[in-house]
Amino acid sequence: QDVHKHWRTTYERIEKFISPLYFCDSNLLSRQTSNRAAALSIQHLKSQEFLGSWLDKKTLTTESLWEDIDLGFKFGPVWSIHWFRVQLPKADWLNEAFAASKKSGSINSEVHFQWNSDTEALIFSPTGRIIQGVTSLHDGTRETAELSPDDQNDLQSPFNESQLMLYLQCSVSELFGAGPSCVRPPDPKRQGNLSKCQLIRRDPIISRLIQDLHLLMEIAKELKETDQGHRALYCGNSIVNLCLQCRYDDAIKLADEFFKASRGTTMEPAGTSKDRMLLHAMGHCHIDTAWLWDYAETRRKTARSWSSTLRLMRKHPKMTFVVSQAQQLDWLKTDYPNLFSEIVSLAKQDRFLPVGGCWVEMDTNLPCCESLLRQFHYGQKFFQRHFGRKCPEFWLPDTFGYSGQLPQLMRHAGMSWFLTQKLSWSLVNKFPHHSFVWRGIDGSEVLAHFPPGDSYNMQVLPSELAFSASNHRDKGRTQHAGFLYGHGDGGQGPGPDMLDRLERLSDCPGLPRLSHGTPRTLFTGLESDRANLHSWTGELYLELHNGTYTTHRSIKLGNFRCESALRVVEFLLALGVLDETATVESLDSLDTAWHLLLLNQFHDVLPGSSIGRVYADSARHYNQILSVCSRFRSMDEVSTPAASVSELALVNPTQWSMSLTLPEDHGRRLVSLPPLSVCRLDQLLLKEATPPEPTAKLLDSKVVVLENEHLKAEIDSFGRVVSLISKSIGAGRECLLAPVQLTYYHDMPLFWDAWDIMDYSWETRATVAEDATGKGRLIEPCRIDSPHSCKTVYELTSYPTSSDATDSNLVSRIEHQVALLPERPHCLTFCTRVTPWRAAHTLLRVELPCNVRGVTRANAEIQAGRVDRPTRGNTSWDWAAHEHCSHRYLDLSEANFGLATIKQAIYGGSVRDGSVVNLSLLRSPRGPDAEADFNSEHCLRYALMPHQGLAGLTDSSSCRSLVATACQFGYQSDVELTRLRLTDRTAVPLTTSPLVTFEQPAPGSSQSVVLDWIKPVRSVDQSKWFLVRLYESVGGFVPNCCLRIYLPRTGGRLTAAFESNALEEQLRPLKLQSAADGGVAVELPAPIAAYQVLSVLICWTL
Fold first, then answer.
1. Domain of 1011?
2. 1044 in helix, strand or coil?
3. pLDDT tens digits for range 134-154
4. CA distance 869 to 1082
């Protein structure tokens, strides 16, 4: 019969025929489930103490430990772990369904176990074999576990032959934690609620037709104006007619004909199919190592997600799946060894592929260079050891910006490919490429790819394929692109529906081709088109989540201090200073410490965007790291009373002489440490030391003057630095355009509370000292509090945050100290103490207006180098970067004068109006951690340092070198005395001799190569190995330099040296030459290029 087909009515007819909301009593969905069998019994383990991956035999068999429950059972509290035991009947239809599945040879079974408890759950057999994970999210599509005929025997109840039995482990949280949204704290009252527990039989033909109709609708909608779209619509309409006549086999044939025809070339001109974009489809399950849940929950998430994926892969032999983060695989190896073994087996088939080559998917803005290299070192070593391969690609789909040093560090770890997609989140500017050559600040190149679907959680829908093609920014340059499918962030991964759609859409006219792929097939395809691709040099800045440079100050300071502690301990161990040299046991303990540090550099942990439980874990981990270090040295910030001065020493792990003021117990004496040395305190105190002259004086009743031979600063009664004169540089130049002062801003972003600082917050600027709103208030005017400093005290009242105004009465006390310290006479040093921080939705900054003119870019230190930052908002790219990240300094330099801001673990900041530097000191978001830095005490240290401008960044005089001062600032701020652990102290010359000297070119030339790290290296023989890490710091060219090594133990000698990499491999031998003073010179590769990172492996024997 000839019937006019209107597009909308036809489309909606199909939609209603498979709708879960409309006509559910008579449409096709109502015919999908033919049988149900309720559980015969559901039991709950009374104790919540069983947190392991399986139950012991006594728990399994002791009935008194289990309580009978029914549907509607609620359990808690939030985050608690619960075990359930379910007895299911062997209904008559069950054997029939299993037999039918075997007979048909279908990969899809008819039998499903359905469980919904408003939580995630992991299903076990009575023998402890993991079946798979289930969850109540995703429209109910993931709340069932398909049971195959092979499962039937394994699920046999040990108590009753006529029953099946399952165990489930549930955590009272969901895929995305336990909060009402991903920016809100967890709900402490959240409970699990058991609403479904049954066996169901689903007709595989009906299920297949429902899937086909969904897909035909999607094609019709996405390709609405094309022949293919109309064919899909009319095919779906015909299938509905056949289903109404119960002609299901004919309906299946009709659907098969459509999709088979789509995979042919009959509907397109010859060769057209191959001309379309090819999407390399890879199963993906991004699991945040911590975020809205803690580390312990992540360990369970990996089992739930990857067991489900393994089950799918057994059914789909062409399916490939990628998984990053060695830490998560290491946890799985410990907790679920059988799952790990199966993963290793599939990895050998290039199907379940470890990728990324790093310990976790880390933040790349905040960690130091060595931490990033250790991420690669431990990740690649893990994959090499357990999977027999190193990763050629760095896989970092989700982090908040990408350091400009990453290409070089990747190449240093044997990687040449890079994949991410986070830059698609940028708020203002759209990044111009999806495939390009990324060039680092040193010139190193890697091939980079952003999947053009702008997601790593694809569902394999026609709309996603179409968007991948239309959104592709490199059309005509390459046909290859990645396509990552599966539920992510909270885990779960691909579903069976996705695999079914992938098969049907593999070659659909009007859409890109879709094929099971791997990182290697993707990047090999891109490499073939590399000559056509554009390049991008420098960092990849994300125009969003810029508040993460500041949020959770406590974890950023903890990370900084642990990095510093490990640097010192590894320096001592590498060169044999300590009695406990680099033994296997000591290296194992250092590995443990590094694993914990790297874990907490995950991209939602160190940036401060996780829930409070995570930071309780982090604090405990930092204490463990410092405890490991304390086994080698005392970590006390003051002297240990039980230790005599002959047992105490000071360590200078930098290549420059360093001045320190001793703690109060030792008279606050000023001492000077040689470069790269360990100096015994008793011998330091024997030297004559002139007490430092006072620098502070009261000019009149309102102005304090701090003055020495280098600087003169004036501070008014409000604590503002109103003048800073550089006496030794710039011929008495005034360094400031306006007063240095504390400011605050209303800090309420559009959505991502812990993540974002919005541009409109600048409109709310107010000063802490003089505030028209009355929130900022001067409590104690500026006064001299030591011979070298003055202090001012303020109060800051919180913005109102709730209807009961409880938080609006919270007050923060701020003690602001300005000093000219003897150990840093060329810097004006600040210490801002907040006791405690209680200002909700408030951003505290310090404003430093610099008298540096005509500067369009600022010099910002990053890992092993620096980058330019905008100082004006001339373009959208400039003003979108209104808040940016820097490490130890942020500098404004003219040709022969500069003013640098030096800081300790303060990363967020900006430069506005050409020369006004703002450091972001503290934030107070209320989610997802409502206590982020709230009610905590904070000490923020920073300094202003005039210097000789661009020409003087690395002046040979250490007191004038910006790089040297920045490197030493953290050590000088936290003076630590080391208790020596030597069996024969008299045999070790520790008083004035450096352990390593570093010879750069002739005096007067640029001294820009930094000796960053010295660490012990494992050895398989009796030799001792250590590694020296260096980098060029300011973008210069160094023609030649060498290391001179002095071994403190008698009889030690250097025997070999090699150029190395992040994996500590021996690459090229280096020349050794003995010196008359007993040292051995190691000639470094020449020249050392701008921002180059160099690793040198050195062997010595006793």
1. 995-1102
2. strand
3. 998 756 678 999 998 888 889
4. 37
